[in-house]
Design a protein that fits this description.
GIY-YIG endonuclease; binds zinc ion; 725 residues; 6-stranded parallel β-sheet; Rossmann fold; binds adenosine-5'-diphosphate; 21 helices; alpha/beta; 7-stranded parallel β-sheet
Length: 725
């Protein structure tokens, strides 16, 4: 028996299948889609079995595989085919397309030295534990294992190998393979609403015919989209089918997950990014075994190994988190959703209050069926939005708060209602400068300003992690005039505290929510009215549902408008509309105050009018004139390397090759990327704009082929980039 094995050697960019012999004693257990361990030069590698055959066309003497890593298939037929399509569409290596589908514990490991063992996980055997005495040191390890349910062997070895072996010997810690761990959710009765007529209508339309079909569900904030999703998923469940629901960032949507858990109980697998590798692995296996029929998760959950899928839902489809843009394969979960929907012949629902232009354009053309929930569930109007022109206001107010916003906050506090304040940090850096000469501190490795961190009084580079203490004298003019210009949430919190000394303020940003579970706890306590004001960054705009919030204030609407990206207006409109949608979601009517230096910008005026279609039409005109999506496709080619001169020369060569070969494409660049240097790697970009270019992939593949194995230069290709960077 001969098998074709796909191995990963990313350093050499090798993406090739190699033939191996299978020893007799292993032949019975060989299946396509499992991992095997193979000798490769002086190393052993893991790879995926993609072929079983009788003959090999290889000229080399074939070696035997060393071992089999899986008893169950991890890449089933569907995923194997999907990988090939991704490989073809993204031009990333086939192996990277398979690797991205799998939890870390199931990825094929590369470059391990002979004899290195496969990861093992440990869990606590509670029944034995209660009968044994342990030392404090041992208890520490036990507690870690209890907390994380499953802990990697390597992690425990790092703590202490002797304690680990002692605990294993006593039987207190057992290898994960012996038993399975399961997250447990209990169902609650009465967690279901009588649908409104609009909701009913949407559900009926989708269920009329549950074959493959993409839909856009355009529902204003608070229109009850989630309830519709649950109804559709329940229908699939009743038919014995499974469902996937994607959300932009699952740890930021605990309220949504909770609603699902109440309704569906143990049938849910929630693929949190906060899960440990062991927990992710465990959830993955539960799904593969058919023990969970509903998967909720962020981007990569679209690869969940479900069988018999009956419903695929992408909530907040406008979110750029569905595109993997920073590493290969640069895929969109929305494309994968379409593939899987077609494969399983089931509906695919894209939901949003502010659909992306691409998706709305397809709905307008009838490529996707358009469904809408034009009103809020409670029949309440969308909140009244007021725009405050900060150009005038800034002269009259000392800090960052306009008089209008202060008055409104006061009013709500008096009525015992709650307030959400958004500090728009998108595209915003709180850099440190000298007030005397204007000197700005920059990262020595990257072309980017350092960001001030108050808690540690340091300046850090958000790209490479470089950090340094804050100086008080300027290295340029030697004056003591250093200040941090940035308005961070901490600063705003201080200002708020001075204006409203009696208000209870809760600050939510990536600093305060980084601890596991912190975010969820904050949401609970705000919901319980332990706080009056919730102040935060973008995370307060996402999917929160608090009935007592009647005022949303946007402190600075503009930063995200200034990002040099063709989507900056769209992203700003969407962010402002989403955060506005947090106000007045229940009985009490809500209002919204947006402070801006660009009161006449259309992204802001259409937000004020809650006029999505107005914004859409205006933005479509601009995109058409400037030849941007959805009228043209974009492809971004990133060329990077340490030797700036070399890279620059090669980028020019690539450009010339593209110009010679692509006759129907607009080719821009090469230009230095927005951030030219990161970690001392220089980056150039070439942008392609095209409507139809049949030779495109062939030409790009030739270029990739040409530079393969050249480690002075790296070429990354991003089709339909979510950002041009
Ligand atoms: P969206 O996701 O469209 O912003 P949600 O699904 O969060 O809206 O619904 C808004 C609020 O209305 C939630 O508190 C939800 O529980 C409630 N809700 C949804 N559907 C109904 C219904 N049919 N009857 C009563 N309340 C509902
Ligand atoms: Zn840096």
């Amino acid at each position: 028996m001969i098998i074709g094995v796909l191995v990963e050697l990313s350093s050499k960019n090798i993406d090739k299948m190699f033939d191996y012999l299978v020893p007799l004693n292993l032949q019975d257990n060989i299946k396509i889609g499992i991992r095997v361990e193979v000798p490769f030069g002086s190393q052993t590698l893991e790879g995926f079995v993609l072929e079983i055959k009788d003959n090999s066309s290889s000229d080399f003497k074939l070696k035997e595989i060393i071992s089999i890593k899986d008893t169950d298939i991890i890449l089933n037929e569907e995923l194997l085919e999907l990988g090939k399509i991704m490989h073809n569409n993204t031009l990333a290596t086939l192996i990277s397309c398979y690797q991205v589908m799998l939890p870390k514990a199931l990825k094929a490991k590369q470059g391990s030295i002979i004899n290195k063992k496969f990861d093992t996980y440990y869990m606590v055997n509670e029944s034995i534990l209660s009968t044994m005495k342990v030392t404090p040191k041992q208890e520490e390890m036990i507690n870690l294992c209890k907390k994380n349910k499953l802990v990697k062997r390597s992690e425990l070895l790092e703590m202490s190998s002797s304690i680990l072996s002692a605990l294993v010997k006593k039987g207190i810690l057992v290898e994960e393979k012996l038993e399975k761990y399961r997250l447990s959710y209990s169902k609650e009765l009465g967690s279901k609403f009588q649908l409104t007529a609009d909701q009913e209508n949407v559900v009926e339309k989708v269920l009329e015919n549950t074959r493959y079909k993409p839909y856009l569900l355009h529902g204003v904030t608070g229109s009850g989209k989630t309830e519709v999703y649950m109804e559709l998923i329940e229908d699939a469940l009743n038919k014995g089918k499974t469902s996937i629901m994607l959300v932009p960032e699952i740890s930021l949507t605990p309220q949504m997950v909770e609603r699902f858990q109440k309704r569906f109980g143990d049938n849910i697998a929630a693929l949190h990014s906060a899960l440990s590798d062991g927990e992710k692995y465990d959830e993955w296996r539960r799904i593969a075994r058919g023990e969970a029929s509903i998967v909720i998760g962020a981007r990569s959950a679209i690869f969940a190994p479900l069988k018999n899928i009956g419903m695929i839902i992408i909530d907040e489809e406008h979110s750029d988190s569905y595109k993997q843009g920073d590493s290969n394969p640069r895929y969109s979960a929305k494309d994968i959703a379409m593939f899987r929907g077609e494969y399983h012949d089931c509906p695919v629902i894209f939901g949003s209050a502010t659909p992306s232009l691409e998706v709305m354009a397809r709905a307008q053309k009838g490529v996707y069926e358009y469904l809408s929930l034009p009103n809020r569930v409670n029949g309440k109007k969308l909140p009244l939005v007021r725009i405050i022109d900060m150009n005038e206001e800034i002269k009259k107010s000392k800090g960052h708060f306009s008089r209008n916003l202060i008055t409104s906050i006061n009013d709500k506090l008096e009525k015992d209602e709650q307030v959400i304040l958004l500090l728009n940090r998108r595209g915003y850096a709180s850099f440190v400068t000298c007030k005397n000469c204007g000197y700005t501190f920059k990262c020595p490795n990257c072309d980017i300003s350092l960001t001030y961190h108050k808690s540690s009084n340091t300046m850090r580079c958000h790209y490479c992690g470089y950090g340094t203490k804050v100086y008080d004298t300027c290295p340029e003019c030697h004056e003591k005039s250093i200040s941090d210009l940035g308005v961070g949430t901490q600063k705003i919190e201080e200002e708020l505290g001075e204006i409203f000394p009696n208000a209870r303020i809760l600050r939510m940003d990536f600093d305060t929510t980084s601890r596991k579970g912190a975010h969820e706890k904050m949401i609970k306590s705000f919901k319980n009215h332990e706080y009056d004001i919730l102040l935060g960054t973008q995370i307060v705009a996402k999917g929160l549902d608090f009935s007592n919030v009647t005022l949303v204030g946007v402190i600075n609407a503009d930063t995200s408008l200034n990002i040099p990206d063709f989507r900056s207006s769209e992203n700003t409109f969407s962010l402002l509309s989403q955060v506005a949608g947090r106000s007045g979601r229940s009985e009490k009517s809500g209002e919204v105050i947006i402070q801006t230096f660009n009161p006449d910008h259309y992204a802001i005026s259409y937000t004020k009018m809650h006029d999505y279609m107005g914004f859409y039409n205006k933005e479509m005109e601009i995109r058409k004139t400037l030849k941007y999506p959805p009228f043209y496709y974009l492809c971004y080619i990133k060329i990077s390397g340490k030797d700036m001169e070399y890279i620059s020369k090669e980028a020019d060569k690539i450009k010339r090759a593209l110009v010679r070969n692509l006759l129907n494409t607009n080719i821009l660049g090469p230009t230095p990327s927005t951030i030219f240097r990161v970690n001392n790697i220089y980056r150039f970009g070439i942008i392609l704009k095209y409507k139809k270019e049949e030779k495109l992939k062939d030409v790009l593949n030739k270029i990739l082929e040409h530079y393969k194995g050249n480690n002075k230069i790296r070429i990354d290709i991003d089709f339909n980039p979510s950002q041009i960077y």
